[in-house]
Design brief:
Elements: H1 8-16, H2 20-31, H3 35-48, E1 56-62, H4 68-81, E2 86-92, H5 105-108, H6 110-114, E3 118-124, H7 136-145, E4 150-154, E5 171-176, H8 180-186, H9 189-194, E6 197-200, H10 208-222, E7 235-238, H11 247-263, H12 266-293, H13 295-310, H14 315-328
Parallel strand pairs: 1-4, 1-5, 2-3, 2-4, 5-6, 6-7
Helix pairs in contact: 1-2, 1-3, 2-3, 2-7, 13-14
Amino acid sequence: MKRRKLTTEELIEGVLAGDRLILSRAITLCESQKSDDIRASEALLKAVLPHTGKSMRIGITGVPGVGKSTFIESFGTLVTEQGKKLAVLTIDPSSQKTKGSILGDKTRMEELARNPSAFIRPSASGSALGGVSSKTREAMLLCEAAGFDVIFIETVGVGQSETLVHGMVDFFLLLMLAGAGDELQGIKKGIMEMADAVVINKADGENQKAAKRAKAEYQSALHLFPVDESGWIPQVKTCSALENTGLNEVWEMITKYQSTMHSNGFLVENRKRQQVAWFRENVSEMLGQAFYQNQEIADLLPEILSQVESGALPANSAAYNLMQQFLKN
């Protein structure tokens, strides 16, 4: 049986009331590319915006095999035990061939999925870079409006382009494994520079000694980077998400960071910059869509692409010529 489409007013009312089913449908609306849904989502976001901005936004990324899902489930459970309502926005990588995604995060976090104080919303990354979905920010705002105190954004992993999450969260947490000497060679320096904390997971059993050595190596490496404008010195912690050890220390570190950044005014100023950056990203995206949807450009494009492919026309010249044609319209 097909569900009745909710009006924008019903979505607004449901989101503000904290109705999770309606919240999920509101996020789905924002992810839609249909013109009617885009207009409805704009009205929805404008209405809920005054009710946003009060949550603690935490980005979580890490190397493959680090145990992100286990960490998020254990750490998320700890957060809810502190009396906090938690929203987890997880991003599954989309296939570049089929554009499909498994969206299996709820099955990987079964206990947290059943937690009445937690809300898990998986999304496909689609064609978006940065390790996040193209509508992650919208989903985050809707969760804030629904009354969630803490929001986790789990990225698809660590890579050259997977750093955009840093531009939408307050605290950026990088999960790593023991064996720092090898890992430091393989991880991108840019992500290390942006991390507010490095947490070495799986520090249990025979791995505890290696985790302690890794902690010392990461601390030494982080001291080589210039001090962030916030004044915060990135910290290194060890934990075992499987055995629930070290997680309290991670939470205390994050709450201390949040308190410090509130006090010195950095949190407010940083969020202002993030909003402006989001605006610029939207302008770039909309210009790109308008360019390719322009009928005259669509008619010229096949021949231009053929010339670029054959080497008859430099790519930059082709782009410049088409852009000039587009601006004439």
